[in-house]
Amino acid sequence: AMSMLTRLEGCVPGWMLDEEHICHSGCAAGTELEKFICNARDLGVLTGSEAETLIHTLHQHMENFYKRVSALQNGRVSKPIYVQCEESEEAAADQKEATTTTTTTKGG
């Protein structure tokens, strides 16, 4: 298993593995949050409709995470959503610099 993981890490950009880990962690946290919401409902802290609204929204977010994992595993992803990678940081810095230059030029 370790040698397979090492080969995988060599073939896949690091942000993809990080992104998959974030999605799995998000789903695990969502499962725990759902238990918490159900417990609050059972104790009378939340009404049934309040709990259902929260759980429904939570399930939508978890579905997005599951779809993202599937897309990552099937090679249908070209850029990160949840992970800030160096390429994204450089592009953001370039965009900020261009905006600052344009603003300075217009104002001066």
Task: Give structural notes.
This protein has 108 residues and is mainly α. The chain has helices at 2-11, 14-42, 48-73, 86-107. Helix 2 (14-42) packs antiparallel against helix 3 (48-73). 6% of the residues are buried.
What key phrases describe this protein's structure?
mainly alpha; 4 helices; 81% helix; elongated
Helix-strand layout with pairing:
Elements (H helix, E strand, L loop, with lengths): L1 H10 L2 H29 L5 H26 L12 H22 L1
SS content category: mainly alpha
Instruction: Give the total of beta strands.
Output: 0
Helix count equals 4
Shape: elongated
Strand portion = under 5%
> Helical content, roughly?
over 70%
Spell out the helices and strands N to C. Answer: HHHH
Query: Radius of gyration from the CA trace?
Result: 21 Å
Give the CA-CA distance, first to last residue.
61 Å
Mean pLDDT: 83
Unreliable sequence segments? none
**The biggest beta sheet, please?**
none
